[in-house]
Amino acid sequence: MLYTAMLKTAQEGTELLTDEESVEKTLSIIELIKSGGTAGQVIILLLFVLLLVASYIYFERLFAIKSASKVDTNFMNQIKDHVSNGKIDSAQVLCAQINSPVSRLISKGISRIGKPLEDINTAIENAGRLEVYGLERNVSVLATISGAAPMIGFLGTVVGMILAIFELANAGGTIQMDVLASGLYTAMTTTVAGLIVGIVSYICYNHLVARTNKVIHQMEANSVEFLDLLNEPI
């Protein structure tokens, strides 16, 4: 009986010890950031701001590109009917009602009807460059964030290691993990945060570029169709 009681007590003590160890190993993200010191918190805050900026640019551009890509499939057929029948004003009104990059290019071409075909093509190309510039507005900022965020995270790593070495040098040569913890937390948390922001921004940038290219191809296809319409024999 005594042996059984001792064994039971030992098992309970082991369970309590295991529970304590599991509690000690549990660390929330907020506690991890707080443990990184002032330098780590400043860098994490900067990365968080960059993440907010990247998110705003991504969703703002995504909705703008979606709106620009919406073109009525019957739009060019209506333009063809108006131009063929000599209803230039009606074609311009239709372009104004649609109000999309494609309609603005066609409107620019319609306004040049009567001039040489080369001049019309040049006018459409110039208008197309302006439309592409508008679609790509602020997208380059995403590319900058995707490259700068990991570098800022690595800067935090270097700062954290410097702090760890400084604390170690002031410890009189004795290695104490609690003394090194702040610097190591700064090194690790900023690296992870920088990589997360950089990866998210890079994915968002490439997605916007792909969506923009689809709109550009759509603009080019409709422009070529319009020029072919003007080049048809009467």
Automatic annotation (TrEMBL):
<keyword id="KW-1003">Cell membrane</keyword>
<feature type="transmembrane region" description="Helical">
    <location>
        <begin position="139"/>
        <end position="165"/>
    </location>
</feature>
<keyword id="KW-0812">Transmembrane</keyword>
<dbReference type="InterPro" id="IPR050790">
    <property type="entry name" value="ExbB/TolQ_transport"/>
</dbReference>
<keyword id="KW-0813">Transport</keyword>
<dbReference type="Pfam" id="PF01618">
    <property type="entry name" value="MotA_ExbB"/>
</dbReference>
<dbReference type="GO" id="GO:0005886">
    <property type="term" value="C:plasma membrane"/>
</dbReference>
<dbReference type="GO" id="GO:0017038">
    <property type="term" value="P:protein import"/>
</dbReference>
<dbReference type="InterPro" id="IPR002898">
    <property type="entry name" value="MotA_ExbB_proton_chnl"/>
</dbReference>
<keyword id="KW-0472">Membrane</keyword>
<keyword id="KW-1133">Transmembrane helix</keyword>
<keyword id="KW-0653">Protein transport</keyword>
<protein>
    <submittedName>
        <fullName>MotA/TolQ/ExbB proton channel family protein</fullName>
    </submittedName>
</protein>
<comment type="similarity">
    <text>Belongs to the exbB/tolQ family.</text>
</comment>
<feature type="domain" description="MotA/TolQ/ExbB proton channel">
    <location>
        <begin position="98"/>
        <end position="220"/>
    </location>
</feature>
<feature type="transmembrane region" description="Helical">
    <location>
        <begin position="39"/>
        <end position="59"/>
    </location>
</feature>
<feature type="transmembrane region" description="Helical">
    <location>
        <begin position="185"/>
        <end position="205"/>
    </location>
</feature>
